[in-house]
Design goal:
The chain has about 110 residues and is an all-beta fold. The chain has strands spanning about 10-15, 20-25, 25, 30-40, 45, 55-60, 60-65, 70-75, 80, 85-90, 95-100. The strands form three sheets. The protein has a five-stranded antiparallel β-sheet, with no helix packed on it.
Length: about 110
């Protein structure tokens, strides 16, 4: 699928064990990208995973705790979580993000 529209990909709760992230996922051979939404107050509990992750805020604001350091990020900002580093995300307002993860053992966001 070299061309796609996120609007045509079914939305899902991508990491229900850890977060309320909801949206479509596009999975390639080595990387997965999601256009995900969090409602105000929603987010991801503290967790770590073997995948490297980059998250960029499109709309809204997030509070991110990454390896013990807290930072608020807004549109055009984000974070890079190295593999196996503890991180947590809380939406300070309704937010939409692009979340990119490398695939480890064929898995990205669906952990």
């Amino acid at each position: 699928m070299p061309f796609f529209r996120f609007a045509d990909i079914p939305s899902e709760y991508v990491t229900p064990k850890y977060s309320k992230a909801f949206g479509p996922l596009l999975t390639g051979m080595q990387i997965e990208i999601g256009r995900l939404r969090f409602g105000k107050g929603q987010g991801a509990v503290p967790h770590a995973h073997p995948q490297e992750q980059v998250m960029v805020v499109l709309t809204g604001r997030l509070r991110v705790i990454l390896d013990g350091q807290a930072t608020d990020v807004g549109p055009g900002e984000g974070f890079l979580a190295p593999p196996n580093v503890l991180h947590q995300v809380t939406a300070l307002e309704d937010a939409e993000v692009l979340s990119c993860k490398g695939l480890v053992d064929g898995r990205g966001h669906r952990i």
